[in-house]
Write a structure and sequence with these properties.
The protein contains nine helices and no strands. The chain has about 260 residues and is mostly helical.
Length: about 260
C-alpha cells in the first residue's frame, strides 16, 4: 500500500512534526478565531470588540475579571479551534486511530474498567493535592481553571461542555500522549515510562506555571501512565480524560464546585 501524507515522513521525525503542528495550532487557531468572532459579535453589540481588546490585547484585566462578552467569544473560539484540530487529526491519522480502536474493542470491557480505575487514581491523587494545599494554606485556583469555569457558565457554555468533554480529551491526548511520547521514544530514544512522566509534566506546564501546576499533575500523570500501560493505545487516556472532564463539568454546572 502506498504511503500517504504524514506516513511518508520517517517515524523518527513524524512524531515531533505532529506534536509541533498540533501544539502550535491549539494556540494559533484560538488567537485567530477569537478576534474574528469579536468583530462579528461587535456588529450586533457595539462595544464588544473594544472590551475584547481591553481584556486580551491591553491585558488590563485578569481572566477572573474578563467581561462576560469576552468569555462568550472565547467559548465560541475554543470550540471552533478545537473542532478544526480534531477534524484535521481524524483526516490525516485515521489509520492510526482505527488501529488503536480495533485493539480497544478486542478487550472492550477490560479497557472500560481500566478507564474507571485510572479515574479513581486521579481522584485519590487530587485529594492528596487538596490536603497539601490546605496544609500550606494555599487558596484559589489556576487562572486557566477560572477561565474554563467562566466559559462553562457563559451564554455559550453548551459549546464549552462539548469542547471540554469530547473535543479537548481527544485533541490533547493525541498531542500530549501519542505525538509527544512518540517523539520522546522514537526520536530521542527515551524509555517509555520516563517519556510518560515528561509528557505529564509538559501537559501540566501547558495549563499552568504557578504552584497550581500541582493541581494538574494527578490528571497528567494518570493519563500518561494509562497510555504507557495500555501498550500505547490512545483511546485509554482519551477515555480517562473524558470521564475526568465530564465529572468536573457537571460539578461546575450544578454548583458542586
Amino acid at each position: 500500500m502506498n504511503k500517504k501524507g504524514l506516513e511518508r515522513i520517517s517515524e523518527k521525525w513524524r512524531y515531533p512534526v505532529m506534536f509541533l503542528v498540533g501544539f502550535g495550532l491549539t494556540y494559533i487557531l484560538t488567537g485567530i478565531i477569537g478576534p474574528i468572532v469579536a468583530v462579528v459579535y461587535d456588529n450586533s453589540n457595539p462595544g464588544v470588540l473594544a472590551q475584547f481588546n481591553d481584556d486580551i490585547i491591553n491585558r488590563s484585566n485578569t481572566p477572573a475579571e474578563f467581561a462576560s462578552t469576552t468569555i462568550d467569544i472565547f467559548a465560541i473560539a475554543q470550540f471552533i479551534g478545537t473542532a478544526l484540530i480534531a477534524v484535521l487529526i481524524v483526516v490525516l491519522l485515521w489509520r492510526m486511530l482505527a488501529s488503536d480502536f480495533k485493539e480497544f474493542k478486542n478487550n472492550f470491557w477490560y479497557n472500560i474498567l481500566t478507564i474507571f480505575l485510572w479515574f479513581v487514581v486521579i481522584y485519590a491523587m487530587s485529594y492528596g493535592v487538596t490536603v497539601l494545599f490546605d496544609l500550606l494554606k494555599i487558596e484559589g485556583m489556576a487562572d486557566n481553571e477560572t477561565f474554563v469555569r467562566k466559559m462553562l457558565n457563559s451564554r455559550y457554555g453548551f459549546l464549552m461542555v462539548l469542547s471540554t468533554t469530547l473535543l479537548a480529551p481527544f485533541v490533547e491526548e493525541m498531542i500530549f500522549r501519542k505525538f509527544l511520547i512518540g517523539f520522546f521514544e522514537k526520536t530521542l530514544k527515551i524509555p517509555l515510562i520516563v517519556s510518560a512522566i515528561l509528557a505529564a509534566i509538559i501537559f501540566g506546564l501547558a495549563h499552568d506555571h504557578s504552584v497550581f501546576l500541582l493541581a494538574y499533575l494527578p490528571l497528567a500523570l494518570a493519563i500518561s501512565l494509562s497510555y504507557a500501560f495500555s501498550n500505547r493505545n490512545v483511546w485509554i487516556p482519551i477515555g480517562v480524560h473524558f470521564l475526568n472532564n465530564l465529572i468536573a463539568a457537571i460539578a461546575v454546572l450544578t454548583g458542586s464546585q
